[in-house]
Amino acid sequence: MNREKKIATRVSYGNALAALGEKKEDIVVLDADLAVATRTDIFRDKFPHRHIDCGIAECNMMGVAAGIAATGKVAFASSFAMFAAGRAFEQIRNSIGYPGLNVKIAATHAGISVGEDGATHQCNEDIALMRTIPGMTIISPADDVEAKAAVEAAYHHQGPVYLRFGRMPVPVINEVPDYKFELGKAVLLKEGTDVSIVATGLCVAEALEAAEELEKEGINAEVINIHTIKPLDEGAILTSAKKTGKVVTVEEHSVIGGLGSAVADVISAKNAAKVLKIGVQDIFGQSGSGAELIKEYGLDSESILKKIKGFLCDKE
Amino acid sequence: MKNIELKLKANNIRKETVKAIHNAKSGHPGGSLSAADIYTYLYFEEMKIDPANPADMGRDRFVLSKGHTAPGYYATLAERGYFPKEELQGLRKLGRKLQGHPVMNKIPGVDMSSGSLGQGVSAAVGMALSAKIYGDDYRVYTLLGDGEIQEGQVWEAAMLAAQNKLDNLVVIVDNNNLQIDGEISEVNSPYPIDEKFKAFRFHVITIDGHDFDEIRTAFKEAREIKDRPTAIIAKTIKGKGVSFMEDLAKWHGTPPNDEQLALALEELEAARKKLLRQQEESKGADNE
User: Fold this and answer.
1) pLDDT band with cut points at 50, 70 and 90 for residue A1
2) A77 pLDDT exceeds 60?
3) Cβ pairs A/B, distance under 8 A
4) What is the pLDDT of residues A256-272, one digit of tens each?
5) Could you list the residue range(s) of the whole structural domain that residue B7 is in?
6) Phi and psi angles of residue B110, each rounded to the nearest 5 degrees, phi first
7) Contact B209, B38 (CB under 8 A)
8) Fewer CB in a 10 Å sphere around the end CB: N or C, chain A?
9) CB distance from A98 to chain B under 8 Å?
10) Positive or negative CA dihedral for B269, B28, B43, B34?
């Protein structure tokens, strides 16, 4: 893993979208006065006539995206996760989800790592909200490579997709030969027998690091990267859970309704393993740097390591 | 189509509307009837459409932003030949096509799912924008309730429509003056509606929404307007055509019972006969 090279997945999104726009004439990009932050400005600068700034009106933007998709085009609608999934939830549900329109909701600035802007802008609820919409595909990429692949996959998928990107630069962990992104498929990053660590987004790198440390202490952890949270690769999760009997989920999202809940749903149905959910607890965030907040809310490799060790010692 | 023919179509649509709502034992007659003449004009005169090919990419689009008046919309689509009239008896029934609010991909002729107020107009703006971006020449129409424009999203959409000079978009407000809780001016007044749309840089036309001459003139005028969207404020009567339903908020979402249905159909049939007589007389006059 290259911990030196760091890229924010919102930048990956902007680059991938602009590259895709080159080949695909049917892409229309919408933004809500955040083009410079969501990085749809890269697309805008190349294809100004296919980029519509809707101004600070996210609910309308989602409806407009639905209308564009209804004419056979592929709409990418971007804002911060808080205002896309949060503010415009009902528009996404009724105008995009219900008719199954081909809109890609590309939300940046997801999670606690938004940083200094504080709790109003730190969306730890978006996965939970989007999971409840029938037919919604949810992708939460771990790094630059995966984020770019996710944009392409979202374009080719027929139907609504929620893409989750971050503001903070994160290590590039997928720069490997013949990297392949398969929508809905879990990625086994490290095989192990003692515990399964199932992570998503920027927590994948942290989980990998924690697993390396566990190895030094004689604990053999399996690490699974879930980039597609919905539909979830239930088979991969159950196989791993049955093997290790202990599953730890790690996500930069509330422990309510996110990856942890999705994994726990699958595991509880089969009584397959004990589950520990690591994520943002049922509290609001605060201002601070992204890295500080990741530590403060227990999502860094050290905190993950500590929690996993406690979980493995717990004999109840 | 001549006005008398449009009136006969609208009469059929009103009949089918009350029958369907009666059969469903639920639904929204008031706003369906107030919009019946506008529906008729759009589907029998104004829009470039082909019921045999409802998915044609070059067609004009209609978004019923006030989705709850679906019964009148469905009756119009059936009258225009998108699906058999018998389907209307499946309105709001389990396992049937005609949902309480419009659903695209499921109901032939429905261009956008709607029902959550304030959202359809945004989709219509998206369709009109798409036409502008790709140089397509279809036009987009959307019908809003006057209570619906209390939703802030309507004005977000209006702002963006003018910003992008969507002269291929016509927003129609069914101004029947009533919403569930009473008169719109008493609940939370959106008046002056015309001035609001003017302030949002629309070309605004106010008409009697039951007068086909005025409806015709307004839609023709909208076609001539360049670089601006048009808003047609149609002054209407809620429940129009069924005397005991007219101008009463309680008929917003109440189905007629058996007796009320019979009365409504009797009235509408009398109106139809009168129209037929007028049609005969005018034919006679033409022949002279």
Assistant:
1) low
2) yes
3) 108
4) 999 999 999 999 999 88
5) 3-287
6) -85, 120
7) yes
8) C
9) yes
10) positive
Residues 48 to 67 of A: which have CB under 8 A from any B CB? 49-50, 52, 54-55, 57, 59-67
Number of domains in chain B: 1
CA distance A27 to chain B (A): 10
Q: Hey, of A58, A59, A64, A96, which one would you mutate to test binding to chain B, going by the most B CBs within 10 A of its CB?
A: A64
Judged by CB atoms closer than 8 Å, whether chains meet at A67 and B116 is answered as no
Report d(CA A8, CA A15) in Å as an integer. Answer: 11
Q: What is the value of pTM for the model shown?
A: 0.97
Q: How far does the CA of residue A95 sit from the closest CA of chain B (Å)?
A: 7
Asked whether the domain spanning A187-308 has the same topology as the one spanning A2-172, the reply is yes
Please name every residue paired with B203 in a beta bridge, in sequence order, or none if there are none. Answer: B230
Domain range A187-308, its CATH number among 3.40.120.10, 2.60.120.10, 3.40.50.920, 3.40.50.2300: 3.40.50.920
Q: Report the top-level CATH class of A2-172.
A: alpha beta
Give per-residue pLDDT as tens, B200-257.
999 999 999 999 999 999 999 999 999 999 999 999 999 999 999 999 999 999 999 9
CB B63 within 8 Å of CB B112 = yes
CATH of the domain at B105: 3.40.50.970
Angle formed by the axes of helices B120-134 and A58-70, to 10°?
60
Instruction: Judge whether A100 is closer than 8 Å to chain B, CB to CB.
Output: yes
Q: What are phi and psi for residue B221, nearest 5 degrees?
A: -60, -40
Among B105, B128, B156, beta carbon nearest to A99: B105
Compare CB distances from B130 to A61, A71, A91 and report the shortest one's residue.
Answer: A71
